[in-house]
Structures are given as C-alpha cells and as structure tokens.
Design a protein that fits this description.
Elements (H helix, E strand, L loop, with lengths): L5 H4 L12 H14 L2 H12 L7 H33 L4 H7 L1 E18 L2 E13 L5 E11 L11 E7 L2 E7 L1 H6 L4
Antiparallel strand pairs: 1-2, 1-4, 2-3, 4-5
Helix pairs in contact: 2-4, 3-4
Length: 188
C-alpha cells in the first residue's frame, strides 16, 4: 500500500500552502479589514482639511481615541467572525452554495487524512482531497482541497468515488461537497 503524502495530493501548492490564486483573496481580505477603519481615516482627513473648525488638540485626540475604539470594537464583533471569512472565501457562504449552487459530479482522484477532531459539535476528519469536477457542459477540472469530512462519512471515501458537488455559478473554482447527501446515499 502506497503512503500518500501532502505533495502527492497538492502538487500545485507552494511551500506555504498558497497559490497565485490566493492573491485576489488577499486583496479582498485586506480591503474588507481596512473598511472598518474608514470612519477614523475620514475623521483625520476632516481634521487635516480644517473642516472641524476651531477644536482643541486635546478634544481632537479624545475623539480620535473614541472613534478608534469604536472601529476596533466593530471590527472584533462583526469583522472577524462574519466579514473577513466571507471576504477570503468569496461572497457565497458554503450553506448557500449547497442550496443554490449548480449541481456537478466530482470524483476523488487522490486522498490523504490530515487530522481528526471536532468541528463545531460534529466529529470530523480533515482530509486532503484532489477532486475532479465534471460539469454538465462537458468541462472538467481537478482541484485540491482540504475538507472537514464528518467522521461517519470518512470511511466511505475511496479513490474514484463520485461525490455530490455544488459549484458556484459565478466562480467555477468554488465548490462545496454535500456531505449530508453523501452520508444518506453513498455514490459508487
């Protein structure tokens, strides 16, 4: 039995696990993070332009600190858990992709187990899968991915197995595996 390594599964990845396709994600992520500090930047620009009128330095500094604290609180409460993951992963959350995405057939071309553990309240196995996606129009592509597979579904997986997929109609490189459907009706 051959031992599958990460390099076998992800030959296109660099040393740091990122590829050239991550650059647009990084830009989108950075702009989303900076958006939370736009009020502070606007405050400083108004101060520099003299629009705020005759305001003491002490009062300006006090307001600046209060605005910075408000921006940071908003960033921590809304930005990190909601906005930044969507900025990195694209605008379509996985649950919406599963319900609204275009159906496609996927086949496991290679696989390796990365780790086991709990994701949320579900026992899962982190799997490194290289999946060949066959779309209805006849096109296909092979993409590597790291997936949190429910523990009861992981033993069913094998190379060549068909997976139920949903592909983002706006970005054919974004897809989700319907693990619940697979557990209910394993495909061969």
């Amino acid at each position: 039995m051959k031992v599958v390594t990460c390099d076998d599964v992800f030959p296109v990845m660099g040393d740091y696990g990122v590829s050239g396709s991550d650059f647009p994600k990084f830009i989108r992520f950075s702009l989303a993070a900076l958006m939370f500090y736009a009020p502070l930047a606007a405050w400083f620009l108004l101060g520099i332009a003299g629009v705020l009128g005759d305001i003491s330095q002490e009062r300006f500094d006090h307001y600046s600190v209060m605005i910075a604290m408000g921006c940071t609180a908003l960033f921590l409460i809304v930005g990190i858990p909601v906005v930044l993951p969507r900025a990195w992963n694209g605008s379509v959350p996985e649950r919406k992709l599963l319900s609204r995405g275009t159906r496609a057939r996927g086949f496991i071309r290679s696989m390796a187990e990365a780790a086991s553990g709990t994701v949320g309240e579900v026992d899962a196995v982190r799997m490194l899968l290289q999946i060949e996606i066959q779309e209805d129009d006849g096109r296909y592509l092979t993409l590597p991915g790291e997936f949190d597979v429910p523990a009861e579904t992981a033993p069913l997986l094998h190379e060549g197995m068909e997976l139920p997929l949903r592909v983002d109609p706006g970005d054919r490189y974004r897809f989700a595996v319907d693990w619940k459907r697979l557990a209910e009706n394993p495909l061969e």
